[in-house]
Amino acid sequence: MHYDIHGLTSPDAPTILLSSGLGGSGGYWAPQLPALSERFRVITYDHRGCGKTGGSVPEVGGISAMADDVLEIVETLKLEKFHFMGHALGGLIGLDLALRRPELIESLVLINAWSKADPHSGRCFDVRIALLENAGVEAFVKAQPLFLYPAIYMAENSEKMAAEEAHALAHFQGRDNILRRIAALRAFDIDDRLGEIQTPTLVIATRDDLLVPYSRSLRLAEGLPNANLVLTVAGGHAVNVTYPQTFNSAVLDFLSGVERA
């Protein structure tokens, strides 16, 4: 597993581990690093089969297998307790860890995540798979921003969109890996176990998320015994990228409260 450490360097420093979504790149969290690095040891990593991490997601094991990859990093760094922030797929990894290894997780931040996939998200996955299988990698990559960002953000950041597309094409994780990751997203279902997770949790969602209906986050906030909800009007699926200052402020406020408790 390839990982990077940012910010504070002491092993005794408060630590937060960040897990990205379907793209799987630790670089996804660039808008959060300056704010988090002032107060935390920040760990980002590339998911298996993504970026600088080799291999591929196993055919069986789903989200738990991806959570095991996080535990490999945890063991390497000898982490006894840490905060965990996950976007979409990364949030599902965090929920799996909170169920299986609750003693490790000091708090959870879940961004546009879910305890059970909504049929609408399944429709979006079907479209993306059809693009990949019938139109190829370039079409799949070109469509990706549509599921991440609001239209106005894409219109105002055309050069950024072009750069992201070129990078995604150059570092595409591979057909089999992406299909296995989507299958894991669709199969994940802990809806009847949310009450078991006592971890302090911040649930962040956006009303204009095209990929994940915000009702999925409302369900998380209702079902998790110790959860707070931040529901924004705009920002799309990748709200931490489109509105980083607002997002970072909400996360830091939450983490400060957990640290004081």
UniProtKB/TrEMBL annotation:
Location of the Peptidase S33 tripeptidyl aminopeptidase-like C-terminal domain: 198-256
GO molecular function, one term: hydrolase activity, acting on carbon-nitrogen (but not peptide) bonds, in linear amides
Classification via InterPro entries: AB_hydrolase_1 (IPR000073), AB_hydrolase_fold (IPR029058), AB_hydrolase_sf (IPR050266), Pept_S33_TAP-like_C (IPR013595), Pyrimidine_utilisation_RutD (IPR019913)
Broadest EC class assigned to this enzyme: hydrolase
Bilayer-spanning residue ranges: none
Keywords: Hydrolase
Catalytic activity, reaction form: carbamate + 2 H(+) = NH4(+) + CO2
Annotated Pfam families: Abhydrolase_1 (PF00561), Abhydrolase_4 (PF08386)
Known function: Involved in pyrimidine catabolism. May facilitate the hydrolysis of carbamate, a reaction that can also occur spontaneously.
UniProt name for this protein: Putative carbamate hydrolase RutD
Source lineage: Bacteria, Pseudomonadati, Pseudomonadota, Alphaproteobacteria, Hyphomicrobiales
